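Internal tracking record. Fields below are filled automatically when a chain is submitted to the structure queue. Please do not edit lines marked as system-generated. If the sequence contains nonstandard residues, flag them in the REMARKS field before resubmitting.
Queue: standard
Priority: normal
Entity type: single polypeptide chain
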Amino acid sequence: MEQQHYFYSSSRYLLLFLFFYAFVLLPLVRAGDAEALLSLKSTLDPANSLPWRQGSNVCTWQGVRECMKGRVTKLVLEYLNLTGTLDRKIINQLDQLRVLSFKSNSISGQIPDISGLVNLKSLFLNDNNFSGVFPASVTTLHRLKVLVLAGNKIAGDIPASVLNLRRLYVLYLQDNLFSGGVPPLNQTSLRFFNVSNNHLSGEIPMTPALIQFNDSSFLGNVNVCGLQVHNKCANGIALPPLVGPSSEAHPSSKSKPNKSKLIKIIAASVGGFLLLVLFVLLLLVLCRKHSRRKEADTRSKGDVHGVEAAGTGGGGEGTSGGGGGRGGNNGGKQGAFSWEGDGLGSLVFCGPGDQQMSYSLEDLLKASAETLGRGSMGSTYKAVMESGFIVTVKRLKDARYPRLEEFRRHMDLLGKLRHPHLVPLRAYFQAKEERLIVYDYFPNGSLFSLIHGSRTSGGGKPLHWTSCLKIAEDLASGVLYIHQNPGLTHGNLKSSNVLLGSDFESCLTDYGLTLFRDPDSHEEPSATTLFYRAPECRDIRKPSTQPADVYSFGVLLLELLTGKTPFQDLVQEHGSDIPRWVRSVREEETESGDEPVSSGNEASEEKLQTLLNIAMACVSITPENRPTMREVLRMIRDSRAEAIVSSNNSSDHSPGRWSDTVQSLPREEHLSI
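SYSTEM-GENERATED OUTPUT FOLLOWS
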């Protein structure tokens, strides 16, 4: 009885505690952020720009963009003419913040210790009046990915402790008073970097993270040197273009002939120096005229795109992706994300339905990025935005080709393509040194992974002929759709550029991008990529053609049938014996017990022969002898229709076989942000 009484008493106390927590302590915790924000307003908002009121729901307040379990996780207070200084105690009470932005205000003083913001991922303090030194506490925020301190009066060294920010993706420190050297940043995640218009000096480290940036990231630091700025160093010191004579004459007891020779040398040096100065001035005038002409063109394009993005980018009030173009009000500085105001362009959405996409360029820059692959055209990333929305972003390797106007026209053309077997191109971004293309994200991986799994040797298991037929029909219909647009080709058809959709349908990606190759580049494609290409297009400087796409399709069909990547030139290696080679490969699979073809099934052998005949026609050496993509699709559909009829009379059902093929594929788990 005593134990039972004790149990009931304990339960009563537990219930009382839970009641007290739910109705007393929890509201106090939630009220903590409201109190902190009201204290912040009292120190920064004398003009009463923020209509915050005690007792209202803090998650509905202006500038509070996101809450989680009653706590503020995203605070964006931009273009509000906030003044005063930040209080360390107040800021650190907001310890659940993921995003904090005071962009384009008039806040002054030293950036306080914010080490309490342990969850912070993005910090925007650009275009204020902050002074003092680099905030050391920032380098303790190990989750930080975006750090923008541009457009302030921060002095002193950029500390080496910045290397502690292992996830750093954006680092913008331009337009400050930083001195000393550039730290040896080695974060592989770093994609955007700028330290222009400071007082930095010394040699720029040749780390993999910094070698990817050119002189536009270091402009205005006259004493820096290194490969990135095309300025040689001597013991870590930038060499001046010319060493002039001393300003003071030093007494000498040398003879008159020596003095005469010295005068001649000085006169020749001065004359040469003056000629050099005149030449440089002339060159600068010509460059400035050319630059102004280009900037005028860019601004006219940027204005059009800026209006388009402002209405559709979903950037929200006061963000650079929207807000009626207010991002341009930054005093003429090249601010962190003020793309429209600087004429650098904006995130441009392509199709009519894409205009409703609820993300902006700033959202992309704040997203966590994971490298999916690197190719001849550039690098591809999986971008997980703070909203949880996922896209695929392709960063083109060379942003100089083609010119901005030609790039825009071609992107608009590709962006209008919509087909069930094309990965839709949703948006693009262009600047002088950056070009990004945004596609839908496909979590089920590529056709290459389906065939080869995780093997890097290129050897995989040949697919069942019913699977081959389905994939071939998907891809042929997609390529034909591209070819129906005058002047368009895929140009880079291979298994790694085929993605699997939600129903494991095959969808083409990276189509129509060959126009963006540097015509003067001497870079050679990899051996595997080379052997997908038709013999007449092995030179990457030659334009891609529709018959060349047909050849690549034939090679891809042979890859489906054999599980072998084109590590060798199949046509030259096997010639007319390709069918015999394909059968021998599949017979090896039969002996190992993994043969996907039903043994002894004459219908299977017949369909295999049909697929081989189509592949052989496609990989003809002579372009004129290859069928058109329309003819290829017709042959595949005829064969598949016959296969469906014949499979109804056997145990070898096509839908089941395709299901078996994809069922074993691992579904990608959702990655946390």
